[in-house]
Design goal:
With 282 residues, the chain is of the alpha/beta class. The chain has nine helices and eight strands. Strands 3-2-1-4-6-5-7-8 form an eight-stranded mixed sheet, with helices on both faces. It starts with 14 loop residues before the first strand and ends in a 25-residue tail after the last strand.
């Protein structure tokens, strides 16, 4: 395990960045260094990489957790969250971003400002800007997932599959991580639903969609992973007789978006579960 050294004086000490990584030798060094410019602590979960990622991580000033074999993004995030709860108890938020370069660490301050405005909310960096290069199949899969997860939550949200997020540490402590998925790609969707069940809102921060930063094939398989997410949501809705009132609310309400370029000062956010503020549009 490595310890960050010579960090920028401005790097926040109250946040931790968790980065799951599987075969990311091409991008991991740049992603890690960019994250360290915005957070005092960075944890990288090496999910059984076989391409030399582990060797690169050994030279980086970050904390590292290693899986002896590939277990999937959900397991990496779950272990990262558990580590944060145990080793970074003073952190107010855990931020996540992918290791392939599709998320920009420069957006971290914007997510943190949204978290300050909405302290009782899960903040998602929604890839709604400059989306022209987005693969069509992935875009459609994400839209279907957004609809299903909005239904399960009872409020509209944007880009439920984005991995760039700011999780309140209080939320991670409340969620029973042992009872949600530890494999595949469903954990991020389950956490949104669990957050809503616990009274947390979901707030979107518009970010650029960045694709093609890595030459390796995407680990996200639109059809297979969308089916897994759909099955998970269906099981939850079936237990609640499909929560038709929640569906109606999700369809009619606008999502909550924190966009500093379009802030309406008359729509100030309120603390607590019932967040009525609206910043921009989803």
């Amino acid at each position: 395990m490595n310890v960050p050294l010579d960090l920028p004086a401005s790097a926040p000490r109250n946040v931790l960045v968790v980065i799951p990584a599987f075969n990311e030798a091409e991008t991991i060094a740049e992603v890690a260094h960019s994250a360290l410019a915005h957070a005092a602590r960075v944890l990288i979960v090496d999910d059984g990489s076989t391409d030399g990622t582990a060797d690169i991580l050994a030279e980086l000033p970050v904390h590292v957790l290693s899986h002896p074999r590939n277990r999937g993004k959900s397991a990496s995030l779950c272990d990262g969250f558990a580590w944060a709860i145990a080793a970074a108890a003073d952190a107010t938020h855990v931020l996540t971003m992918d290791a392939d370069g599709q998320h920009r660490a420069a957006d971290i301050p914007r997510l943190l400002r949204a978290a300050e405005a909405y302290p009782h909310a899960l903040i998602i960096g929604a890839r709604v800007r400059r989306t022209r290069g987005a693969p069509r199949v992935r875009h459609l899969a994400n839209r279907v997932a957004d609809f299903l997860i909005s239904w399960a939550c009872g409020h509209r949200l944007s880009d439920s599959q984005s991995g760039q997020r700011a999780y309140p540490m209080s939320l991670l402590r409340e969620i029973d991580l042992a009872q949600i998925a530890h494999d595949g790609f469903t954990l991020e969707s389950e956490v949104i639903i669990e957050a809503a069940r616990l009274g947390y809102q979901t707030v979107s921060v518009p970010i650029d969609a960045v694709y093609g930063t890595s030459s390796r094939a995407s680990h996200f398989k639109p059809v297979r992973h969308s089916l897994a997410i759909g099955a998970m949501v269906a099981r939850r809705l079936a237990r609640e007789r499909f929560a038709l009132r929640r569906l109606w609310v999700a369809i009619r309400q606008r999502g909550v978006t924190f966009d500093e370029l379009r802030v309406d000062a008359t729509m100030a956010p309120r603390k607590g579960a019932a967040l009525a503020g609206r910043h921009g549009a989803d």
